[in-house]
Amino acid sequence: MRSRLNCTRIEDSKFLNKTLKLIRLMQVDTDIENTNQSLTALGEQLEKSKAQYALFQGLVQFVVNLVDLFNEKAPEVERLEEEVMRIEAEKVQALSRITEDDVACELREATEAGDAAGAAPQRRRRRRRPLKLDGYQSSDTEDEAEVKKFADARQELLNQCGALFEDVQEEFKSIPHIKKIFEEWKTKYYDSYKQAYCALSIPSVFSPLVRRELLGWDPLGDVSFSAMDWYKTLIDFGVMKELDASDEDLNLIPLLVKSLVLPRARHAIAHCWDPLSSLQTAKARALLSELLDYVDASAPALKEIFSAALVAMHDAVEKRVHLQLPSGGRRNPGSGDVHLRQLWSSCKLLKNVLSWSDLVETSSLQHLSLDTLLNGRIVPFVRGACETHLLRPCDALCCCERVLEVVPRPWRESASEVPPALRQLADCVARLPPASTAHPHGAPRDRVIALLCSMSAHNLARQYASQA
């Protein structure tokens, strides 16, 4: 019995030892498998680290070369930008002098009488466009010789800029290539991209090349900055598959607009925009409307541009409105056309000034347009020109009708009385001699009455209708 029990114990011990060995072998296999997996993962991580290291090494070298390049080229690009803006301003000044000389010559001939007019010095005068059906005269014609001279000077500066980058490899002057490099970094290693605060330095990376492209841009031309290659390339810079509203790279375009486009726009409005040109005025408005999409209206830099616009319009009213009645009632044959042209030029300026009513502060614009230009210059001239028979009543009425058309509706609507700013205009219209068989060039009665009613001058309209 004891012998059998010992045998059983021995067998159990052998079974236990075999089981323990089997468990140990299984554990070793598991450890080997885990070790192999770790080695594989470490190998993969090593390859990724190698790729990341290679990318960062290449990126560091690229950025170093880029910085060296921009340190060398950027000052020259900025100098060329200043030269371009100087030429643009000188062109406008030269063309303005030619225009003002022509106007002064015309007025001198129109206001001088008899022999004095005949003795006026002969001078070249550029051809003026005839008045259109609405009375407005185009002021967008330019002296071709002057335009060509400044265009050639501007092109020479652009050629200098092109030559400046001739020795630069394409990868360092290509905005798409630079964009691709930084987007690869952001896409593959977003955490390191974010930790490096790249969003703060990216605008400085692209600024010199954007400034270089903007050298050929005319802020008052046919191409807006949003249609340029740099804009179309960078508008989606760094945009990930899942759009993150907090991604600071979304601020790249607004930052470039503020630092590069805004100064060019300010210079164009302050020194190149002609308020008498309807074409330039439309483009200036379009430019500032587009800037408002990227710059807050309360930003000091944008306020400076609107202030510059007001200053330019004020200067045009003070210096380029030539509404002068002949002294002593003397005038030359045909002088009425000259004064009529100046009248319509003033009305065109009023129209251009009032086109800013949705962008410029209301009280300042009302004072300039209605108080200073309309009531201070246009209405007194129309009244005096009609009294001295320099202007036909029918032409005066046409002018007054066009004036009222361009006054913003909220400024001229009134329930019961004439708005204060339009009282002088209403009184002037009510004094126009009505047309009759004896006076075929008088003002058509029905149009005068309609115009007075549109200004809520109902009493004046009734009085005019009752005239014999």
The count of strands amounts to 0
Q: State the assembly state of the protein chains.
A: single chain
Largest sheet: none
The chain-level mean pLDDT equals: 85
- What percentage of the residues does DSSP assign to strands (E)? under 5%
Number of helices: 18
Uncertain residue ranges:
113-127, 129-135
List its salient traits.
mainly alpha, elongated, 468 residues
How do the helices and strands line up, and which of them pair or pack?
Layout: H1 2-111, H2 114-118, H3 144-164, H4 170-173, H5 175-188, H6 190-195, H7 198-214, H8 229-234, H9 252-272, H10 278-291, H11 300-319, H12 335-354, H13 362-387, H14 393-406, H15 409-412, H16 423-430, H17 445-454, H18 458-465
Overview of the molecule:
The protein is an all-alpha fold and 468 residues long. The chain is built from 18 helices and no strands. The chain has helices at 2-111, 114-118, 144-164, 170-173, 175-188, 190-195, 198-214, 229-234, 252-272, 278-291, 300-319, 335-354, 362-387, 393-406, 409-412, 423-430, 445-454, 458-465. The relative contact order is 0.07. Mean pLDDT is 85; it is low at 113-127 and 129-135.
Describe the structure concisely.
With 468 residues, the protein is mainly α.
